[in-house]
Specification:
Length: 371
C-alpha cells in the first residue's frame, strides 16, 4: 500500500491529528503525512508525552487523535495509558499505531527481543483492544474504522499493530545540510582520538553501530565502550551512574533525539556535578536511525539549557578542525560539547558482532582496571 492511500483512509475516517515518536516500519507514511495540510502532525519527544498531547487534543476538540510509536516505546507510554487514559481514570479515547519489533520468529535486534515476546500479553493486561494492520486498503479502512468506533463508544485507547512495514517506500532523500559539514561518523572518529582510552557510553541506533565499526577499522579494543543499543533516552543516565563510581573520565556520546526524550537527566547531572563527566551531544536535528524524521532540536538553544542545569563548561562545535583541537582536560566538569552534524550514514553500515552480554562483561572488566 502506498502511504498516500493510507493518508486518504485517515482523511475519509476524519482523523485530523497525529503525534508520536517514529519507527522505521512507518518511515514512508511519516514522510508523506508530514507534508499533509489536512492533518495536524506534532513531533513528540517521547511516547508518554505523545499520549498526553493526544489527550489534550481530545479534551479540546472531542475528536479522536492518532498516536504512533514503536513497541519499545510502549514502556514510556504505560504511565499515561494507565493513570490518564484508562477507563478507570479519565477514560480517554485514542487510536495507537504500534509497530511490532522483535516479533517471535522474525529476526531483529537484541534490544527488541523481550518486548517483542510480551507485547500482546502486555496489551491484554492493559485492557487495550487491538487489531493487526492490513496491506489491503479496504481491509485497513474497515479495521481502522472499527478501532475508532471502539475507542469512541467505550472511551479508551485502541491499538493497530504493524507487524512489518506495509508501505511502499517513497520517502525523500535526506539532503546534506551545508551549514553542518560534519557527519556523525566524522565526529566519532575524531572523538576516539581524544578519549585516551577512557570509558564511552554511546546512544542507541547508528551511533553505537558506527562506534563499533570504527573500533574495528582501526583495530582498537571494544572494551572501552558500553553500546546502549536500546533504552533510548537513558544513555546519559547510564553515564552518570558510571561517573559517580569511577575515577576515570567518562564520555557520554548522545544524540538530540535521545536527550530530548529524557531531558530531566541534565538537571540530575548538574545537581551531582561529577568532575569526570564529558557529555557529547551529536545533534543532526533528526531521528536518523528510523528514517531521518525531524526532531525538534532545531529550535533548541542548548547552551542556556545546559548552563541552567548546572554544567560547568559548554561548547558548541560546528567544524572538524574545532573538534580535533579540543582539550577535555582543561574543561571544568561536568562539561557538554554540542556538535552539529548533517544526517546521513554509510549504506554498508554494519551492526555490532558482539552480543550485549559480551559487551557488558568486557566493559565491566575494563572498569575494574586501575586508571
Amino acid at each position: 500500500m502506498g502511504p498516500e492511500q493510507f493518508a486518504l483512509i485517515l482523511k475519509k475516517l476524519d482523523f485530523k491529528f497525529i503525534t508520536g515518536v517514529p519507527c522505521s516500519f512507518l518511515k514512508p507514511f511519516l514522510s508523506d503525512i508530514t507534508d499533509k495540510k489536512d492533518i495536524e502532525h506534532i513531533f513528540a519527544t517521547n511516547e508518554g508525552e505523545a499520549v498526553a498531547i493526544a489527550t489534550g487534543y481530545y479534551l479540546a476538540t472531542g475528536n479522536i487523535p492518532l498516536v504512533y510509536m514503536q513497541n519499545s516505546g510502549l514502556g514510556n507510554a504505560i504511565n499515561a495509558l494507565t493513570s490518564l487514559c484508562a477507563q478507570l481514570v479519565y477514560s480517554i479515547p485514542l487510536v495507537i499505531f504500534l509497530t511490532w519489533r522483535g516479533k517471535p520468529g522474525v529476526k531483529d535486534e537484541p534490544q527488541h527481543a523481550l518486548m517483542g515476546q510480551i507485547m500482546i500479553e502486555l496489551l491484554e493486561t492493559l485492557r487495550i483492544p487491538y487489531e493487526f494492520a492490513s496491506d489491503k486498503p479496504y481491509e485497513m479502512k474497515m479495521k481502522l474504522s472499527a478501532l475508532k468506533d471502539e475507542a469512541m463508544s467505550h472511551k479508551h485507547p485502541t491499538v493497530m499493530i504493524f507487524s512489518s512495514s506495509l508501505f511502499n517506500d517513497i520517502s525523500k532523500k535526506t539532503e546534506k545540510n551545508i551549514l553542518f559539514p560534519m557527519s556523525r561518523e566524522d565526529v566519532l572518529e575524531a572523538i576516539l582520538k581524544l578519549t585516551q582510552n577512557n570509558p564511552i557510553v554511546s546512544t542507541t541506533g547508528k551511533t553505537s553501530r558506527e562506534l563499533f565499526e570504527l573500533r574495528e577499522k582501526h583495530n582498537m579494543s571494544h572494551k572501552y565502550d558500553f553500546l546502549a543499543v536500546g533504552s533510548m533516552g537513558h544513555t546519559a543516565s547510564i553515564g552518570l551512574g558510571i561517573a559517580l563510581n569511577t575515577a576515570k573520565d567518562v564520555f557520554i556520546i548522545d544524540g538530540d533525539g535521545s536527550i530530548l526524550m529524557k531531558m530531566g537527566i541534565l538537571a540530575t547531572i548538574g545537581h551531582y556535578k561529577p568532575r569526570n563527566l564529558i557529555h557529547i551531544i551529536v545533534d543532526n536535528e533528526s531521528y536518523e536511525s528510523t528514517g531521518a524524521q525531524p526532531s525538534v532540536s532545531n529550535r533548541i538553544s542548548w547552551k542556556p539549557i545546559l548552563e541552567g542545569s548546572g554544567y560547568k563548561s559548554i561548547l558548541l562545535v560546528m567544524k572538524k578542525e574545532e573538534l580535533e583541537c579540543l582539550d577535555f582536560s582543561v574543561l571544568k566538569k561536568p562539561c557538554a560539547v554540542v556538535i552539529k552534524v548533517h544526517p546521513g550514514s554509510r549504506k554498508d553500515l554494519g551492526r555490532p558482532t558482539a552480543t550485549p552480554i559480551e559487551n557488558k562483561k568486557q566493559f565491566m572488566k575494563y572498569l575494574k582496571e586501575k586508571k
